[in-house]
Q: What sequence folds into this?
């Protein structure tokens, strides 16, 4: 089953989307919003599935699905906690800023609390006032979960996964060192994130969803040029069950919580950082990793962070080349300066 | 105007509360929940005020208000961002763990993103599995805001404050050093927070609300013994307008966002850390500060963090000794260990 939220008010309007992303049908009579559906999933999901079946069989005609009309599946959420499960990415990014990787990072997941009150729609521009902040994208996998009790095990956590999405966890690279030095987390260096137009149940992902990991390449393009296609099932040190259990160690988690994987990243065949796409590698899911490779090769980074007008596209395909979640497709547009001063 | 949410489902049931906290009236016909009211505040607030006036005049009888029947004013919120505006507290806590205070902390606010998907009710127990985690309370002031645009000024931010509350930002002192060392913020060391039963509009606070600060003592008791009564209007280096503008530097904030002050803390008359209540001082709003004083005086802390069964009460009174927000009144009860293992 595939679900999306058409942009409409603060919480969007829930629709069921066909497997091929061509048709959609209003789910309003069952649940007006995705959060409302998640609030009573056990009761609502079978009815949404039935509607999905009717859309698939043609009993329900629906209407043409337009990803550009979508808000984030959850336009606002009660929680967004992002892990950093591809430790290869953490190692590269830290090396790029001259920081060591503690050995514990391979056994104890990193996770930060992100802002969840106003996500960007999948085709919304990334509007930020200052290009000097170092705007980067981060291609990730994310899951939406049901209620999870305090102290839940990995097994319990895996059972609570209701939907899977793609994410662009927009990052402000030049603000990160200052924010992390203050010791309170990323705050200003993590502006609003975007998610794929469509959220998909684990069941509908078939054999690609296994062991709490999504075993398919995550494609990204910068200004239309292939940038990365690392396999999201490879080198994911911590699976989603482990990430969710980590989040639930000292508190229960409420339905509609979104848990992120962190930037998808594969090691190279030689165990090293891996090659660029145009050099035959699987590339990267953020500019920071490429800049690290450039620094290793030439002593300094060559690829700038996103410049005004630059575009990023993030998408995933099934074995037949069909888009699973629709595309995140965003342009960086500097915001107007605020009209009033402090 | 004073508002509260009676415990009922995931979002509670909105009631208008009388100034003396004795009566309440169902606000359901105007807005079923506080979040629903905040989503269209300009339209809803005058109608809630009218209901409040009818309750005050006796035109509306209402029913007896019971703080123990309350959930958090926002039982779950789309954002909880907690500042650390009383730099005196930051300096003490850092000194206690042997960390320096950078000079920039006096000019650049500290702020962390907290979990907001499942707050504790004001009289709910604090259930955590391990007393060794070092359970501490933190008495704070918090505000609920309306929509705030990206890059808002302090002046714009101040105008967006809709409601004021008290907060117990529960902290796990023995988990903090490990979490902060990982560089991603407090995550596991900040479990669910609790807020006062009643949220109050700035207008209803009268002259005590000035310059984005609440100029009244914040009282706290540990096991019924007076622990602190520092003035929340003193030594607040960053007012709420500055804190909100800080949060909005790289993203817009949505209606219903909660911004916290950090632990309320006053310097002593000599500019030092200040004396205990039983020694004639204003005391502290968390155990960590007292432990720091003890360490300075005797070389080691004497007061333990909260033990199973310990209680904390946090409350604020007007000039006539009447409770303004009702009390946060919580007991630390260890949670049962989870039934299943990983």
A:
């Amino acid at each position: 089953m595939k679900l999306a939220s058409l942009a409409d008010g603060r919480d969007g309007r829930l629709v069921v989307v066909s497997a091929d992303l061509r048709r959609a049908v209003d789910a309003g009579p069952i649940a007006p919003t995705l959060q409302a559906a998640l609030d009573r999933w056990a009761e609502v999901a079978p009815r949404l599935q039935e509607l999905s079946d009717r859309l698939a069989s043609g009993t329900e005609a629906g209407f043409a699905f337009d990803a550009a009309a979508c808000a984030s599946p959850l336009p606002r959420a009660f929680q967004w906690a992002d892990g950093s499960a591809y430790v290869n990415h953490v190692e590269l990014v830290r090396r790029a800023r001259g920081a060591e990787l503690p050995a514990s990072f391979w056994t104890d997941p990193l996770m930060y609390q992100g802002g969840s009150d106003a996500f960007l729609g999948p085709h919304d521009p990334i509007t930020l006032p200052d290009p000097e902040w170092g705007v980067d994208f981060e291609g990730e996998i994310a899951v939406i979960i049901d209620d999870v009790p305090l102290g839940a095990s990995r097994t319990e956590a895996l059972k609570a996964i209701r939907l899977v999405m793609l994410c662009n966890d927009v990052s402000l690279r030049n603000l990160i060192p200052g924010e992390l030095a203050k010791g309170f987390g990323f705050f200003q260096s993590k502006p609003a994130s975007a998610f794929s137009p469509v959220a998909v149940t684990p069941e509908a992902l078939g054999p690609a969803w296994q062991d709490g990991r999504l075993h398919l390449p995550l494609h990204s393009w910068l200004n239309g040029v292939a940038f990365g296609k690392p396999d999201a099932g490879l080198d994911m040190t911590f699976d989603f069950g482990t990430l969710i259990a980590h989040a639930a160690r000292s508190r229960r988690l409420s339905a509609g919580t979104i848990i992120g994987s962190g930037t998808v990243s594969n090691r190279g065949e030689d165990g090293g950082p891996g090659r660029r796409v145009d050099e035959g590698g699987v590339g990267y899911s953020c500019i920071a990793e490429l800049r690290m490779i450039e620094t290793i090769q030439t002593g300094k980074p060559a690829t700038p962070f996103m410049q005004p007008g630059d575009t990023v596209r993030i998408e995933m395909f099934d074995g037949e080349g069909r888009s699973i979640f629709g595309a995140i497709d965003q342009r960086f547009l500097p915001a107007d300066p605020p009209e009033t001063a402090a």
Q: What stands out?
A: Chain A touches chain B through 65 residues (CB under 8 Å). Residues 1-65 of chain A form one domain. The mean pLDDT of chain A is 94. The helical segments of chain A are 34-39, 41-57, 87-96, 154-159, 176-182, 240-247, 287-298.
